[in-house]
Amino acid sequence: MSLMCTSSGLLFRLRIRHSDNTKLKSLLNSEGSLLAFSGFPDKDASAAGAIASNIWTSFQKSGQYSLDDGKLNCVLVECKLGKIAITKVANLLLCLCAKETVSYGMLKTKIEAMAAYLEEPLSQVASS
Amino acid sequence: MTEELKTYLLKLMGTVEGLHAIAITDRDGVVIVKVTGQMAPDPALRPPFLSVFGVMAEQASKMGIGSNKRIINYYSTYQTVQVNHHPLLLHFIADKNANTGLILELENELADVLKEINKVVGMM
To answer: What's phi and psi for B16, nearest 5 deg?
Structure first.
C-alpha cells in the first residue's frame, strides 16, 4: 500500500512544503466535504472547503457554457485578510489558503507544484 | 460621455497584449459599459456569465478571511480577472497567456472612471 493510501500519509504529503505564508492546505471531494487538511486547527475549515468547492463548480460550469472551454485549471480568490487558490487533483479539489501578502504568482506556482506532487498517488486512490 | 468612456477603455485594452474585453457591470451582471476586441468570446460578455462573479464574491466573503476583492480564473484558452468594486463589478477577459499583473494594474487606471460611475449609480 502506498504512503498516500493512509490518512497519515496524506497529511504528511500535505504538510510538505508548508511555509510561514501558507495558513492551510485542504483536500476536498467534489461535493465539498473535507477529506484532509494541514495547518492551524480551525472550526471554519470545513465551511470554507464547502464554499471553495461551490466557487470552483460554478466557475467551471459557467466557463463550459460561455467560454466553450470545459477545463478550469486554477482559481485564485483574494479577500481582505487572505488569498485562496483552488485546483483539481485527480477527482478531488486542492485548496490552499495564504496570507494576503503572498503574491498571486507565488500562490499559483505553489498550488501547481502541490497538484503535480499529489496527482499520481491520488489518481491511484481514485482509480482503486 | 459613454463614447468617451468606451474610447478610453479601448485605449487601455490596447496596452495589454491578449486582453480581449473589459466590462463594467452591476452586481447582477447587467452591463453598464463594455468594450470588446475581435477575439472576445461573445457569451462571456452576457449576464449569465458575468453574474456568476457577483454571487461568488458574496460566497467568498463568508470564508472567514474578510470581504472578497478579486477572483482570477485560468481556463485552458482564456483567463478572467474579476474585481469587486462594490456596487460595481469589473471584468477582464484575456488570453490564457496574457500578463495577469498588467491586467490587475489596469484596475488603478480605472479607479477614477469607477468613482464617476459609482456617483451616477448612487443617485439612482
So the answer is: -115, 120
What residue of A is the nearest CA neighbor of B93? A67
The predicted-structure confidence for B25-50, as pLDDT tens digits, reads as follows 998 999 999 999 998 888 999 999 99
Residues on chain A bordering chain B, Cβ-to-Cβ distance under 8 angstroms: 42, 44, 47-48, 51-52, 54-55, 58-59, 62-63, 65-82, 84, 97, 100, 104-105, 108
Chain A environment of B69 (Cβ under 8 Å): 78-80
Q: Which residues contact A82 (CB under 8 A, 6 or more apart)?
A: A23, A97, A98, A99, A100, B65, B66
Rounded mean pLDDT, A28-47: 76
- CA distance to partner chain B, nearest, from residue A3 (Å): 31
Average pLDDT over residues A92-111: 92
CA distances from B52 to B18, B45, B88 (A): 23, 12, 14
Task: Determine the Cα–Cα distance for residues A112 and A74; give it in Å rounded to an integer.
Answer: 9
CA B104 centroid distance within chain: 10
Other Cβ atoms less than 10 A from the Cβ of B23: the count is 24
| Interface contact flag, A80 B65, Cβ < 8 Å | yes
Q: Considering only CB atoms, which chain B residues are within 8 Å of A46?
A: none
Q: What is the DSSP letter of A68?
A: S
Q: Which pLDDT score, from 0 to 100, does residue A7 have?
A: 59
